[in-house]
Amino acid sequence: MTSATIDPADTDVHGPASLTAVRPAASPQRLLADLVPPRHFTDARFDTYRANPAFPSQGATLARLREVADAVAAPPRRGLFARKTPTAPAVYLDGGFGVGKTHLLASLAHAVGVEHTAYGTFVEYTNLVGALGFQNTVAALAAKKLVCIDEFELDDAGDTTLMSRLLRELTDRGVALAATSNTLPEALGEGRFAAEDFLREIQALAARFEVLRVDGDDFRHRAVVTDSRPLPADVVEAYAAARPDATCDRFGDLLDHLATVHPSRYGALLDGVGLVALTDVAPVTRVEVALRLVVLVDRLYDNDVPVLLAGGGEDALFTPEMLRGGYRKKYFRALSRLGALAEDGRALASAA
């Protein structure tokens, strides 16, 4: 696969004053180029993962992934008895929110070599198929030694079937696989809840995956983002105005704008942005709006973009019905990540 380039028109080094003013473009080459460990995990390595001795599965998973990295990075065997397409490792990291699964996945990618690895979220891969077509996506990814899928999602039957077919094509070509997903907080005592769902949904691939359990507590220690104290709107606006790389938008306006931008371009939406400020934050009541917000939060988190929130912080961002529904894993992940970014933003504003 040839190296991908990013069109200069896709970037804005200064950052816009408002996200709603941005009409991002993301070419197929840009989508391929973005399949690398996110900025938040640029420095993630096996040596920087701190396994909690209170949860032995963390240390065991770390040790096993070191072995996987060595196996994937090793040059292929040559000779009369070498298999034409050796069976490559396939591992699935099962655990709750904030236990370090993404850190471990990014560490695996760095150990194998980012030039030999495609790293993205489930949504990024389905978007890639939409942009390139299925066979072109297979060809592009088959040039890699390892494909990492963070946050494998099981809530859309069509997308899950598509991803299962894609992974089968890749494993048939000797590409190693590594995936993560989340067990809901209330299901952590129920054994391999998410793993069973994952293996059932990928069906023909299930026997190829080795499940690695990662137990532990959410290191971000966030319940819901709006439990943190919101900042006054004038403080949020003034701090954002003082930073050339900050944006400031009304929450409702941004949600409306997201409806006009394909989720595959949310990463490009944040080009050049170092801080996102939102005023009039209020509960989201429509599922399609909430799902777009989840994708944006993932891109904010991947790029280490702090946020400042002003508005109704005493209310839940998502409705109780949403948090009990089929997309609840996505919502809980978004709450955990947005809570961490909001605390980062609060710390910056407090220090100013």
Automatic annotation (TrEMBL):
<dbReference type="InterPro" id="IPR027417">
    <property type="entry name" value="P-loop_NTPase"/>
</dbReference>
<dbReference type="InterPro" id="IPR005654">
    <property type="entry name" value="ATPase_AFG1-like"/>
</dbReference>
<dbReference type="GO" id="GO:0051301">
    <property type="term" value="P:cell division"/>
</dbReference>
<keyword id="KW-0067">ATP-binding</keyword>
<keyword id="KW-0132">Cell division</keyword>
<dbReference type="GO" id="GO:0016887">
    <property type="term" value="F:ATP hydrolysis activity"/>
</dbReference>
<dbReference type="GO" id="GO:0005524">
    <property type="term" value="F:ATP binding"/>
</dbReference>
<keyword id="KW-0131">Cell cycle</keyword>
<dbReference type="GO" id="GO:0005737">
    <property type="term" value="C:cytoplasm"/>
</dbReference>
<dbReference type="Pfam" id="PF03969">
    <property type="entry name" value="AFG1_ATPase"/>
</dbReference>
<keyword id="KW-0547">Nucleotide-binding</keyword>
<protein>
    <submittedName>
        <fullName>Cell division protein ZapE</fullName>
    </submittedName>
</protein>
